[in-house]
Amino acid sequence: MHSDTVQGTNKLRIAPDPRKGLLQVQRQPDDGMIHIQWLDRSTGGMGLDRMVFPQEVSFKRIRTGKDTDRVYELKYIANNNRFFFWMQVRIITFTKKQNFFM
Mean of the pLDDT values across residues 58-84? Predict the structure, then answer.
């Protein structure tokens, strides 16, 4: 997804990326750091890999005005960098790997 500001307002326009992907949160075994990764399901390629510290980011649902929308924002608190994710599937699986982060 990418976003831009609607001119003359404080609203964002978010356009979805047509690729289907997998969003995962995991602790890397080699460095022990927490990574948020987005993988392209059709190619298997890594589209995004961000190292995060829980106290430095927030991950929350964005209210769009439509109850059926599932847009989430990953925001770095210190520098206001943001990434948006549209969840196409309602099923969210929490495993032991993610529980430390949530």
Answer: 85
